[in-house]
Design a protein that fits this description.
Chain lengths: 122, 625, 173
């Protein structure tokens, strides 16, 4: 049992530090495109759309990746041009605190209620 | 013409019958005998017949392409194949509501027949609550979306059905989903009736569990069919987009799943009474919410095909009336008894079920808030934001890991008080899962730590349930199968998303495109004429790295009524992978734009959902629970 | 007491939800972005329609005057409807029109200009639509008003009509 544990820990440690994710540009590109809303379509991402708007955005994203821009900066660029509506991944900021934190708060609240009900006996 | 009239008047008669039924039921409620007045059965039966006549007459109008009917005119066309003429009946707003009504009335009739051993007052109250819902829907149909509106002068030709709705999976998807939704309405009425009669008890739980199971099974299958449709028809190779309309069908599923687990606690320990009532109310409310969000056009989604604000207002008011009524009943009649929790211990089956509920409610809150927060923000501050897949993945994935771990261990606990048995076997299984995952994920080009953790947890559940299925004597096979299906679902989704690959390129007829020792060859393209569309069928030969050749024939369809161009994906399914090819015309060019995807384990996603619902079916068929 | 309190909270919450949804239904959900803050014009290089030479954006917007940037294409039907209005606008001395020819066939674009007249003081070519993205455009036609500080102060999605024309005239005065 002990040997198993130790060998596993060593293996895991060595593994995580050795392999670095070298994502190719293609993967990054499709990941980014999936997170961009095609503004002239109904509820489609740019990745899924063949419209003129989507194809232009695809070219722009391609160009920006080749210029070496990071994922976040590309989103930033598009947000500046088109507003938050265009990115599917809402940023944590003043108007999205509720969105991001409320579910977590509810989770804690639920846990607290459950804990109280089970431990506190009348 | 005449058929239209028949359909319309049977609807009105149906509404009158609803009102009559309410009056008769209230009268009968105060008569203290054991049996329900026979008239109630006859009236319910007549109502069922009337609504079936109404629905059949709409189908007939569709089959005959009777364009004096506005609904038919808007959604059908003479050149459409018969199958889609019929499925077109519920492919539109008016027809789908008529189907809602039909299922509502059918279910309450079945409820009446099947609940003979239940207390009389409880049955009558359920009937009355259900009739309130039915009256609401009758009014909704007759006032805002009459399927039998008359058109004059009679048009020669209809406008046609949106071609992306002309698909076999979508033809049966709404009816199945509605069976699930409407099943929730029975649970809703029954639980309210049980509250007023102080009948939330073991006996009640055994009786209502069947309804919970039935609606859960249909809802699961309905969601799956919708997902299959998205995969085949929308042509993007994805199967779940966290689109608002998909979320809306997932929400009642989450509460229903929670309810399914809770009801067992009620049955065994007669605890969690208030919580079960709240879940029952929530499930139906969320189903209604779904209808509201989809039909009112308040959401921006691929699936919103028709919308009209006046309908939205009606459903909204109806929805809130129902919520307020049910809450009022709950607060007036329900007396919480806290001693329920007296005998709850940490290591016990009931606590693990509570933990299941805890996570289900968390997932629900993520989906619910993610879906409606943008609406709130837009109204309050006029800012528009998009909430999409990254949001859901980020908030759900870490919790899913813990959820899976609990799910593997939880069912091992005994009722009331338990201890962890077979610690060593648990630990070994856990190690095996982690090691296995590690060696698989290490060889893949992906985010190692994240996927190792997630997949290990899924594998853990997978092995634990597998062991249960084969080694141990089978004590609760339905639960084990369902949990096994769930682990398989998570595994196939994860591996599918990690291992999928795709190529996007332009190709001309006779051209070859090679990459990574694979080759795509466009042999020829044939034009073809069908009754309701013209199509270009391309013949592709795809050779993989082992030299195996597969022929795929994607299609571009140019529908005539309404004129829409769609791409039909060609999909070759095998046990290990799906090959998915879709093409598009590029304006003013002689080449096609193609997207070729290899999607491993695609079929296992569907198989595991089937297993999940199969677990439910077994539980339903078992004589003793 | 406790249950009365929670009932009250629930009722308040529900009425809040009701109001929000009610308002939400009546709002249209067609997305129309507003420019609340002024944005700089993007920096770009683009091909000139007449000379086929590359020009820099600073050169295009060099004068101390209002500019109107109009995205158009010969294949775009609404562009034909707004064209006479652009012609009228081009008579004004207060403003210069810059045309951005969007994903077009150059011969057809030239025919279009020859047939309907040329309101633009300069036309630049946007072959692949990326230049329009730099402006934050959705498609054709679209019109931007740029003030003397070289900021985009207004944007109109879709063809301009008489009301918009009046609004533009007011802005540039």
């Amino acid at each position: 049992m002990k040997i198993l544990k130790i060998s596993m820990i060593i293996l895991l440690c060595s593994g995580f530090f050795h392999s670095k994710s070298n994502e190719k540009n293609d993967q990054l590109k499709s990941k980014i495109l999936k997170n961009i809303r095609c503004l002239i379509c109904q509820g489609q991402s740019v990745y899924d759309s063949e419209s003129d708007f989507a194809s232009s955005i695809k070219l722009i994203v391609d160009r920006k990746i080749n210029e070496g821009l990071k994922e976040e900066l590309i989103y930033q660029f598009l947000r500046e041009k088109y507003g938050d509506w265009i990115i599917y991944d809402p940023k944590l900021k003043k108007n999205t605190y509720i969105l991001w934190l409320l579910p977590l708060l509810l989770f804690l609240l639920g846990g607290a209620i459950m804990y109280k009900k089970i431990t506190v006996k009348k | 013409m005449l058929i239209n009239q028949i359909g319309y008047y049977s609807l009105i008669l149906g509404l009158i019958l609803s009102l009559t039924l309410c009056v008769v039921s209230i009268k009968d409620f105060n008569i203290s005998n054991q049996q329900i007045n026979q008239n109630i059965f006859s009236l319910s039966f007549i109502q069922l017949v009337l609504i079936i006549i109404s629905f059949l007459s709409l189908i007939l109008s569709f089959i005959n392409s009777d364009f004096s009917n506005e609904t038919v005119f808007n959604n059908s066309h003479t050149t459409k194949p018969l199958f889609y003429k019929i499925s077109g009946t519920w492919g539109n707003h008016e027809g789908s509501l008529l189907l809602w009504l039909l299922v509502l009335i059918l279910f309450i009739f079945i409820f009446l027949i099947k609940s003979k051993d239940q207390p009389k007052k409880y049955r009558i109250l359920t009937l009355i609550f259900q009739q309130v819902i039915i009256i609401g829907f009758f009014l909704f149909v007759l006032m805002t979306s009459n399927p039998f509106n008359y058109l004059f002068p009679i048009p020669k030709e209809g406008l046609g059905l949106n071609p992306i709705l002309q698909d076999p999976a979508l033809a049966i998807h709404p009816p199945i989903l509605y069976l699930g939704y409407v099943g929730a309405s029975i649970i809703f009425s029954a639980s309210l009736a049980a509250v007023t009669q102080k009948y939330v008890s073991k006996e009640w739980s055994q009786h209502i569990k069947k309804w919970v199971l039935v609606s859960w099974i249909f809802l699961t299958l309905g969601i799956m069919l919708g997902s299959i449709w998205a995969y085949y028809e929308l042509g993007w190779g994805g199967f779940w987009f966290w689109d608002p309309v998909e979320n809306v069908s997932l929400m009642p599923w989450l509460t229903l799943t929670a309810l399914l687990h809770c009801i067992i606690v009620l049955e065994r320990r007669s605890a969690l009474k208030s919580w079960i009532i709240i879940l029952s109310i929530a499930t139906f409310t969320l189903s209604m919410c779904g209808t509201f969000l989809v039909r009112s056009g308040i959401l921006n989604s691929v699936h919103t095909f028709a919308n009209d604000p006046s309908r939205g207002v009606f459903i909204l008011i109806f929805l809130f009336v129902l919520i307020i009524l049910s809450l009022a009943i709950f607060f007036l009649f329900h007396k919480e008894s806290d001693k329920n929790f007296k005998n709850f211990f940490w290591l016990s089956r009931e606590t693990s079920i509570l933990i299941n509920n805890w996570f289900m409610m968390y997932f629900l809150s993520v989906v619910l808030i993610g879906t409606i927060y943008p609406i709130f923000l837009d109204v309050v501050s006029n800012e528009k934001i998009s909430v999409g897949p990254p949001f859901y993945h980020k908030l759900m994935a870490p919790f899913l890991v813990i959820f899976l771990l609990f799910m593997s261990v939880g069912p091992k606990f005994k009722w009331i008080k338990s201890k962890i048995e077979n610690k060593n076997s648990l630990i070994i299984t856990f190690f095996v899962s982690v090691m296995l995952t590690f060696f698989i994920v290490k060889n893949l080009n992906t985010d190692l730590l994240f996927y190792t953790v997630l997949i290990s947890a899924a594998f853990f559940l997978f092995f634990m349930t597998l062991k249960e299925l084969f080694i141990k004597k089978i004590n609760d096979i339905s639960q084990t199968i369902a949990h096994f299906g769930f682990s398989l679902l998570i595994l196939s989704i994860l591996f599918n998303s990690i291992l999928s690959s795709e190529v996007i390129t332009n190709i001309k007829i006779g051209e070859k495109y090679s990459y990574n020792k694979k080759e795509i060859f466009l042999k020829k393209a044939i034009e073809k004429k069908e009754s309701n569309f013209n199509s270009i069928i391309a013949h592709f030969l795809i050779r993989d790295e082992n030299g195996k050749i597969v022929e795929l024939k994607p299609e571009i369809r140019i529908y005539n009524q309404p004129e829409i161009v769609t791409s039909e994906a060609a999909i070759k399914t095998t046990l290990l992978k799906d090959q998915f090819l879709v093409m598009n015309i590029v304006k003013g060019n002689d080449y096609f734009n193609i997207r070729y995807q290899v999607k491993p384990f695609m079929i296992w996603i569907w198989i595991s959902v089937l297993l999940l619902s199969f677990g439910g079916i077994i539980s339903l068929l078992k004589k003793k629970i | 007491m406790k249950s009365k309190f929670s009932l009250l909270v629930i009722i308040i919450f529900l009425s809040f939800c009701f109001v929000i949804f009610y308002k939400g239904i009546n709002d249209s959900n067609i997305y129309s972005p507003k420019i609340t803050d002024k944005k700089d014009i993007p920096n770009f290089e683009a091909k000139d329609f007449d000379s086929s030479k590359y020009v820099n954006s600073e050169k295009i917007f060099k004068d101390d005057i209002f500019y109107i940037v109009n995205i158009w294409a010969s294949w775009c039907v609404p562009c034909r409807n707004e064209h006479p209005l652009l012609m009228r606008l081009s008579n004004s001395q207060l403003v210069k029109l810059i045309g951005v020819n969007y994903k077009d066939n150059l011969n057809k674009a030239e025919n279009f200009i020859n047939e309907f007249g040329n309101p633009y003081s300069q036309i630049i070519i946007d072959n692949d639509g990326t230049l329009s993205v730099e402006f934050g455009a959705y498609g054709v036609p679209e019109t931007f008003v740029i003030d003397k500080n070289k900021k985009i102060i207004r944007k109109f999605i879709g063809p301009i009509n008489n009301d918009i024309l009046e609004e533009i005239k007011l802005i540039i005065k």
